[in-house]
From TrEMBL:
Subcellular location: Nucleus
The UniProt record lists the keyword Mitochondrion: no
SMART domains: RRM (SM00360)
Chain ranges of the RRM domain: 16-109
Protein name listed in UniProt: RRM domain-containing protein
An example Gene Ontology molecular-function term: RNA binding
Organism encoding this protein: Carya illinoinensis (Pecan)
GO CC aspect terms: nucleus
Classification via InterPro entries: RNA-bind/splicing_reg, RRM_dom
Principal place of residence: nucleus
PANTHER family recorded: GLYCINE-RICH RNA-BINDING PROTEIN RZ1A (PTHR48028), SC35-LIKE SPLICING FACTOR (PTHR48028:SF4)
GO biological process: mRNA processing; RNA splicing
Keyword list, A-Z: mRNA processing, mRNA splicing, Nucleus, RNA-binding
């Protein structure tokens, strides 16, 4: 369930999605919200659940409206440094939520994963799906 109640999912077509890994099974959207709200307007927080047990699957999606806000959240909240930059966190500053060190990165979805840039799906190019060789 999202952080914003049972009104249904918000429109996420123009949002930037972050994948939050290594959350505990008892972590809720309300627990994550204060960590991410500092860096911009959070559109939605979704924690996928196991269909049979209803338990959290150990990860979440946080969606921002603007790319710069999402990038700032990744830079400041990610538990691991992927580049050498002044915003990379030292070992003592890694973010811990419910006793676990979280990892935050831009989300990539399914078969479109190669066409995603910073969490936003790029429109597919008009390519033929035919396996036949091109005519010359």
């Amino acid at each position: 369930m999202s952080h914003f109640g049972r009104t249904g999912p918000p429109d996420i077509t123009d949002t930037y999605s972050l994948l939050v890994l290594n959350i505990s099974f008892r972590t809720t959207a309300d627990d994550l919200f204060p960590y991410f709200d500092k860096y911009g307007k959070v559109v939605d927080i979704f924690i996928p659940r196991n269909r049979r047990t209803g338990d959290s699957r150990g990860f979440a999606f946080v969606r921002y409206k603007y790319a710069d806000e999402a990038q700032k959240a990744v830079d400041r909240l990610d538990g691991w440094c992927h580049s050498v930059s002044p915003v990379c966190l030292s070992l003592n500053e890694r973010k811990v939520v419910d006793g676990r060190e979280i990892t935050v990165q831009f989300a990539k979805y399914g078969p479109n994963a190669e066409r995603i840039d910073k969490g936003r799906i790029i429109e597919p190019s008009s390519r033929s799906r035919s396996r036949s060789p091109r005519r010359r």
